[in-house]
Design a protein that fits this description.
Structural class: alpha/beta
Helix content: 40-55%
Number of domains: 2
Strand order of the largest sheet: 2-1-3-4-5
Largest sheet: 5 strands, mixed
Oligomer: single chain
Strand content: 5-15%
CATH architecture of the largest domain: 3-Layer(aba) Sandwich
Number of helices: 9
Number of strands: 5
Distance between the termini: 71 Å
CATH class of the largest domain: Alpha Beta
Radius of gyration: 28 Å
CATH topology of the largest domain: Rossmann fold
Order of helices and strands: EHEHEHEEHHHHHH
Length: 214
């Protein structure tokens, strides 16, 4: 006996004036035509597709339930219901793929319960790698452009007089946290100067820092 396919429907409209009713009716009809049982419906209403998963609570709930295998296929009216940016769209589709949950997109005719649809899913890794390489290339080009313009990258070095003051206070036994607060520098900066000075008993110093800052 063939196992009944449990379908989840995901709906989204961008404004409060729009309704998800038409999407839902068409997807329910498509499920019925295929003999699928609609077990769950998720709807983000009045939310732009440009927003990420963290701003779309029902999309987030659907993807979490997919990982829990609460359904076998997700049905959406069109691919832009999942997301309008390539990274978000690929991320959602890859999460479904990783959870071994199929995807049915009515308007674009994508159905990964079929062999041709599964082949399309297999291309996701190619698109994701392309997106990652594009981001890396843009970051690298930006860094090289900054260096060419004489912009120094990384943390701004502290002034020599501040380093001298840190060393003086360290030798006086003042705690690191207190020194950082008084000189308005990060505690990591104080620790770096202490390591470079090589004249500090760090266990005593850390103890004194807490003693100085009850």
């Amino acid at each position: 006996m063939t196992k009944a396919i449990r379908a989840a429907i995901y709906l989204r409209v961008s404004t409060g004036e729009q309704t998800t009713d038409n999407q839902r009716r068409e997807l329910e009809a498509a499920a019925e035509a295929r003999g699928w049982t609609v077990s769950r419906i998720y709807a983000d209403e009045g939310i732009s597709g440009a927003k990420g998963r963290d701003r779309r609570p029902q999309l987030d709930a659907m993807l979490k339930d997919a990982v829990r295998r609460r359904f076998d296929v997700v049905m959406v009216w069109a691919v832009d219901r999942l997301g309008r940016s390539l990274p978000d769209l690929i991320g959602s589709m890859q999460e479904l793929h990783g959870a071994r949950v199929d995807l049915f997109v009515l308007q674009q005719g994508l159905d990964t319960t079929t062999p041709s649809g599964r082949a399309m899913f297999g291309m996701l890794g190619v698109f994701a790698e392309f997106e990652r390489s594009m981001v890396q290339a843009r970051v690298k080009a930006g860094l090289e452009r900054a260096r060419a313009n004489g912009i120094r990258l990384g943390r701004r070095p502290i002034e020599p007089r501040v380093e001298d003051e840190i060393r003086t206070r360290l030798r006086a036994g003042i705690g690191m946290l207190k020194i950082a607060a008084e000189l308005k520098v990060g505690s990591g900066t104080v620790q770096r100067v202490a390591r470079q000075s090589s004249v500090i008993d760090y266990s005593d110093l850390l103890g004194s820092s807490f003693a100085s800052n009850p």
